[in-house]
Amino acid sequence: MIKNKLIYGLLFLLGITNACLAQNDKIEINAKLAHDVDSMRIAFDFPAVAYGVIRNDSVIALNVLGFRDIETKEKVQRMDYFHIGSNTKSFTAFLAGSLVDKGLIDWDTKFFDLYPELKEKSDSAYFDITLQQLLSHRARLINFRDEPEVSTIIAEYEKTLNKGLSISKKRYYLIRQILQKEPLPFYSQCDDCYSNAGFITAGLMLEKVTNRTWEDLIMELSDDLNLDLQIGVPVDYNLEQPKGHINPKYWVLDIDKDLVPISDQLRMYHSFNQFGLLTTPSGNISIQTEKFLKYLNLHLKGLQGHDNYLKSKTYQHIFKTFPKYSNGWWVDEIDGNIEYAHRGSNGTFYSFAGIFPKRNVGIVVMINTYNEDGLTDIIKRINETFK
Prior knowledge:
By secondary structure, this protein is α+β, with helices and mostly antiparallel strands. It contains 16 helices and 13 strands. The chain folds into 2 domains: 211 residues, DD-peptidase/beta-lactamase superfamily (Beta-lactamase, 3-Layer(aba) Sandwich); 129 residues, DD-peptidase/beta-lactamase superfamily (Beta-lactamase, 3-Layer(aba) Sandwich), CATH 3.40.710. It is 46% helix and 17% strand. A hairpin with a 4-residue loop joins strand 2 and strand 3. The longest helix is centred in the first third of the chain and has 42 residues. The model has no long low-confidence stretch (mean pLDDT 91).
């Protein structure tokens, strides 16, 4: 009996020792990662970077580095919001999945079954487009993402509008005009057929079957899941939140600096502001890092076969219906493993979300400016750390 007690006691102490060593390793790993990420932040001239990793239901890394405003040097905080641009697309697909689960719409519901009044003047190539085609860039609608195309379309359609329309109604009239445009060719690369217009159109479908605005639907979803989403950029929510930053040279502004916070006047009256409002279902929400990780974890659990807010079969459908791009997510096969990811930017923020089912890992990285190469380097560094 005494011998057994000694054995159990030694095992207990060994367990405590191993747990302490594991905790020390975790602290050391995260400290090294924070040092490396901050070095990259400085090298690439990012005002701030927020990142996090979730694995097996546990947040194993969560950090924010840098400044809300590069001029005032106000420190960024862990609970701060970042704008996620086109990562909003996954939220619109997620919202669609919830309405499918409720029996209000099907993935194969046709747009013109809900909006028959728009069919007469629309190009016949769009007559059979479905919800999941719109959510997967397969409806052949125009890209509606590059400045020349966007500014031309907005200028054209605004001539036909009455003042005082709600933003939801403005989106309706925008899509009415876009459906008259010549469709995109049948591209072999999803990059070429990537369409913000498709997600605006999908948003209209969700509005029709619920008789509610996309904004109302997404905020209800946020409340249900305790995600604390905010529509628009962080300073729309609170002026003390992180500001988006721009390179004046790329915006054709007479400012002799490489990086400045976007001014309130420019933010409100530049054409990109109207574009952001019109494309809200496609790319215009902000979120905190930890809440974003929580959202990714729902998807990881769903892919493992667990029902949560959505049914597991709905998660399977979201990710596995199409190759390359499926219902709000890019689909990649790397070393035989299927991975899902997306990036998003409004030109003043940039974000990444990645789901790695084989490792049961979700990764989020967000910055308050735009820099493709720098964000990619940080993603690689984080991925290597927790591989």
